[in-house]
Amino acid sequence: MQTDKIHVFWFRRDLRLEDNAGLHHALKSGRQVLAVFIFDTDILKRFPDPEDRRVDYIRQALVHIDKEMQKYGSALRTFYGNASEVFQKITASYTVDTVFCNRDYEPRALQRDRDIKTLLKSMGTDFRDFKDQVIFEKDEIVKNDGTPYTVFTPYSKKWKDTLKEQHYAGFPLKKEHLMPLKSAGIHRLEDIGFRKTDITFTPPVIDTGTVSAYDKFRDYPAKERTTGLGIALRFGTISIRKCIRLALQYNDTWLDELIWREFFMQILYHFPWVEHRCFKEKYEHIAWRNNEKEFRLWCNGKTGYPIVDAGMRQLNSTGQMHNRVRMITASFLTKHLLIDWRWGEAYFARKLLDYDMAANNGNWQWAAGCGCDAAPYFRIFNPYAQAKKFDRDLHYVRRWYPDFEADLSPPVVEHHYARKRALDTYKKGLGKE
Which of 366, 377, 278, 286 is nearest to 326 (CA)? Predict the structure, then answer.
């Protein structure tokens, strides 16, 4: 056992060296820092597909970190197992003064961190976590009476009024304090029960031209003029502070999208029960049809509505879906088919490369009308009108569903009938008849 006291930095949703708050604080202390990542079996068991691109992306990002650390005479150590058991092994091999990490705000992650903190305390080791994946967290943006915002516009205004340059300044790293180590390599995918996929990790780069024109093109899926940074923000391969600096410089609309991300995170933090329940309790009385055959048609892109089917086929093929199309497909499932938003949320959770519980949950509840600051229940997207407005020449549809014109299958439900049925069902469930 090494007797000199060290610090441990635990990578989680922050897979980068530069501008990393927790790593900055670990390194500035002057003690040697052992950097670790845990392929946590409690998390991996929620990834049933052995060819999950997200796991492959994480591993490739870790390989990149390990190579960067080798430039400074250090290396990343990876472990496979339950987090508590792994830290017992680490503390048996090293005299650990403090474990540093960056905060996560999902309910299960919060419980995991409480358990790890208790375990480490019993062994005489401190646990320190830091804000890194958001600009403002927890109670930093609240109403004057101290209660959390549940409507985006006033939250956004307070967020912007509170923002100072210090909030998005980067964190420098004293890399000379990384523990001298030779690389032992990163766990192979096969070692942790997964297989190679078609995804390739490259360090994310923000295209300032795309950001500058974000407000003009973001709603047109065929143009592919969004930043493409969803997965990078999800796993922290890019710093939110860097994104905010560029959003402030180039585009207010993109800034608002980044604030929406934080809005949903604080909703999940303050109201963790939204993971499984409607934010607006009365919407629990909606009589969902939950037709399993129709759900499978939606999942497989066979509803008979080209824009919906193209979106689902893009998702199934690539793990990605344009944000405008996400709204269309979610509205279709919850309103046209009257299928519980939780079914759609769970399907997106399995498929989306950039799946983030707070944003996915918040956006699905928005589409269903049952969330905070949600679209009203009577707002029902017409898939034909949406396609005409945002994909007039059907370039997006043809890319992901090239045979749609030859497919003579009738729509799973007629639009006007479905709209009336949804309105009647919602009115009855909400006691508005």
Answer: 366
Quick one: 272 exposed, middle or buried, by C-beta within 10 A (0-12, 13-18, 19+)?
middle
CATH code given to domain 134-167+206-270: 1.25.40.80
Q: Is 70 exposed, middle or buried (0-12, 13-18, 19+ CB in 10 A)?
A: middle
How would CATH label the architecture of 273-428?
Orthogonal Bundle (1.10)
The DSSP output letter for 72 is T
| Active-site residue, 273 included | no
Output the six-digit token pair for 225.
Answer: 């003029």
176 is catalytic: no
The yes-or-no verdict on residue 433 having pLDDT over 70 is no
Amino acid at 269: Y
User: Active-site residue among 254, 260, 343, 366?
Assistant: 260
Which segments of the chain belong to CATH 3.40.50.620? 1-132
**Hey, how many other C-beta atoms are within 10 angstroms of the C-beta on 317?**
11
- Closest Cα to residue 157, out of 256, 257, 240, 271? 256
Active site residue 364: yes
Phi, psi of 33 (to 5 degrees): -120, 125
Per CATH, domain 1-132 is 3.40.50.620:
yes
Among 10, 254, 343, 364, which one carries the catalytic annotation? 364
Catalytic residue (one of 10, 254, 298, 341): 341
**Where do the CATH 1.10.579.10 domains begin and end in the chain?**
273-428
The pLDDT tens digits of the residues spanning 261-277 come to 999 999 999 999 999 99
pLDDT in tens, 376-408: 889 999 999 999 999 999 999 999 999 999 987
